[in-house]
């Protein structure tokens, strides 16, 4: 099946959305990515979001969160076996290493993270700076004519 498609028609009527093409391409490449660990992306109001990752059996020291160039990365390294070796009769709680990446939209900031009841909660907030918010542009009331205005001191 051919998954190549052109986004050129979308870009004819837009300016500055080149990153979306990269986003779609990277999504298609990562289509077969692992689903471990399971996670939710939640929206809490207009500008608040939360990523909830199932982190059963992990501690704060096992997890690493990093934001670099608009990408939030959550990593877990494989835990070392403890000195008092345990023999599992059945091991249903996976404790393998993982790496999840989330591309953050413009002005999305990570506000905090907490591990509670086996769930890693990452709180995100959209904080748009004043200079990026929409503003009204006043239309100058002068009409434009082809006549050149008279300069001071000149008689028309």
What does this structure look like?
InterPro entries: A-crystallin/Hsp20_dom, ACD_IbpA/B, HSP20-like_chaperone. Belongs to the small heat shock protein (HSP20) family. With about 160 residues, the protein is mostly beta strands. The protein has a domain of about 90 residues: Immunoglobulin-like (Sandwich), CATH 2.60.40. The strands form two sheets. The protein has a four-stranded antiparallel beta sheet with strand order 1-2-7-6, with no helix packed on it. It is elongated. The protein starts with 7 loop residues before the first helix and ends in a 30-residue tail after the last strand. The mean pLDDT is about 80.
Q: Number of helical segments?
A: 2
As a percent range, the share of strand residues is 25-35%
Coarse shape: elongated
State the assembly state of the protein chains: single chain
Mean pLDDT equals: 79
Tell me the helix content. 10-25%
- CATH level-1 class of the domain at 35-80 and 90-132: Mainly Beta
Strand order of the largest sheet: 1-2-7-6
Low-confidence segments, ≥5 residues, pLDDT <50?
A: none
Total number of strands: 7
CATH topology of the domain at 35-80 and 90-132, anyone?
Immunoglobulin-like
CATH architecture of the domain at 35-80 and 90-132: Sandwich
Question: Could you spell the SSE succession in H and E letters?
Answer: HHEEEEEEE
- Structural class category: mainly beta
